[in-house]
Amino acid sequence: MSGSSLRAQFTLEDIRGSSPAITHLKEMAKRVAQTDFPVLLEGESGTGKELFAHAIHNLSPRAQGPFLTLNCAAIPEALMESELFGYEAGAFTGARKSGKPGKFELAHGGTVFLDEISCLPPPLQAKLLRFLQYGDIEKVGGISRTKVDVRVIAASNRPLEAMVAEGLFREDLFYRLNVVRLAIPPLRERAEDIPAIAAAIMEKLNRKYPHLKKQISPETMVMLQSYVWPGNVRELENVLQRLFALVEGETILPHHLAAFLPVGPWEVTADRPSLSQQLAMMERDMIQQALRSTGGNKARAARLLGMPRSSLYEKLKTYKLGY
Ligand SMILES: Nc1ncnc2c1ncn2[C@@H]1O[C@H](COP(=O)(O)OP(=O)(O)OP(=O)(O)O)[C@@H](O)[C@H]1O
Ligand SMILES: [Mg+2]
């Protein structure tokens, strides 16, 4: 195993956005990082659960210790126990002579991140509960228990409490894990974070491919904020990468974006102005800016905005701008 995979890569600075929800979550992350309590991260796919797990570890006194991840949904059930807890020499046919340490042992002094914890099979739920209660683990084929000093962070994109209600997840384990629960809202509920996150994504791409340098036009940004993003930040990243790779020219314009987003899920939520309202607000702003920079000269403002003077007069009336 390479050294780098034992380190948490992301820090609090990598979490962009300053919506009340994100600001609050970052505060909570800082606070819980000072303790060893388990943390349960809940949120739809792509909302940043893994990012928060890394950040909490890096904020904690364990930052210099290892950070190990096990994705419970990605690994066959038969292998999960030995991956997590290791096995003793000769534990089963084909086992390594020397035995093998599990993630908990390897993470001693650090953090184990259990991703998709809802997929942890019941026997392992019991073993994890035991660890959370007594701080020790038992290897596969083992005869004794070993104390390990490990902080557990778990993530789920399904609300664990609902799974408890359905009898699919142990209630006692849920309560142990649920000491601190951080619920990350979907991106559509914090559209105000989109410009900062999109800007960070573009910055990264521009740094990596300076010869392809691109920017997002203000109108495109408004559109990005109006889309519902079922795949959350991951989908936003994906769309911006595609636009970055395929758009000719330096500026990503609304018609480029329109060609890349699926037609379906545009939605106007109650707490956010509709797309046309947002476009109107932006238009009004741009007109005001143009007039300000031309000292109120409408002919020059119209030229600056690339619109006929007659249209500008129309807009001034529509937006009740008294120039
Ligand atoms: N607030 C944010 N600022 C910047 N980047 C973010 C933010 N939230 C998420 N990302 C980025 O979005 C992508 C998805 O985030 P992450 O992998 O943490 O999501 P997740 O909740 O673990 O998703 P899944 O449930 O699918 O595993 C990552 O590349 C991550 O860096
Ligand atoms: Mg994840």
From TrEMBL:
Residues 15-245 form the Sigma-54 factor interaction domain. SUPFAM superfamilies: Homeodomain-like, P-loop containing nucleoside triphosphate hydrolases. InterPro entries: AAA+_ATPase, AAA_lid_NorR, Homeodomain-like_sf, HTH_Fis, P-loop_NTPase, Sigma_54_int, Sigma_54_int_dom_ATP-bd_1, Sigma_54_int_dom_ATP-bd_2. Gene3D superfamilies: 1.10.8.60, Homeodomain-like, P-loop containing nucleotide triphosphate hydrolases. Pfam families: AAA_lid_14, HTH_8, Sigma54_activat. GO terms for molecular function: ATP binding; sequence-specific DNA binding. GO terms for biological process: regulation of DNA-templated transcription. Keywords: ATP-binding, DNA-binding, Nucleotide-binding, Transcription, Transcription regulation. This is Regulatory protein, Fis family.
